[in-house]
Amino acid sequence: MHKGLVVILSGASSVGKGSIREKLLADQDMKLFYSISETTRPQKEGEVDGKDYYFVSYKDFAESVKNKELLEYTEFNGFYYGTPKAQVEFLTDKGKNVLIEVEAQGVGPIKLNIPDALAFFVMPSSFEELEKQVNENYKDNKASIEMRLNKAKMDMELAPLFRNVVYNDDLDKAVAQIKATVMEELEKRGAGKD
Ligand code: 5GP
Q: Rounded to whole angstroms, how far apart are CA atoms 186 and 28?
């Protein structure tokens, strides 16, 4: 049996990764399973533990790091986020394709562990557009706006390192572009079908 394909979706905060992710997961052709991250960030209204994230304490997160249970982890806006290794391995060993969503720094360590993972970097149509979105998304938390914009600027400088850069000026177009590359890769591996 072929190992499943790992697809990494990355890009700055508020660039629309979440909407792209939802559409990719809903697509039945790619059959992507979502890699649920661990985080110490508090659960937001509407989020489901074990679906959106595993919401854990700092102590439990530190245990996961110490036991080398994470493929990668990062600190973002004062909270920790990490990709559980066992979950990704369990799925890919069963031939399932996995979607991992991470901020830009998470991509390198994943590629080191899984060199044939297919990484996408989502860019906003312009920095002004991203600025507008960040201001809208975090209007109740003004302190985090500047931090997010600074990080977004740094993240966007990493874009040239990515073979697959996707501009999210049109959601459906961005999803279609990612899907075309994923399907091509699955065809190449002969794993597009059951
Ligand atoms: P949020 O708090 O908005 O859900 O996520 C903040 C940022 O962390 C987003 O850019 C998201 O893609 C990223 N993120 C979520 N899970 C992980 C993870 O496991 N590892 C890394 N490196 N970033 C993550």
A: 13
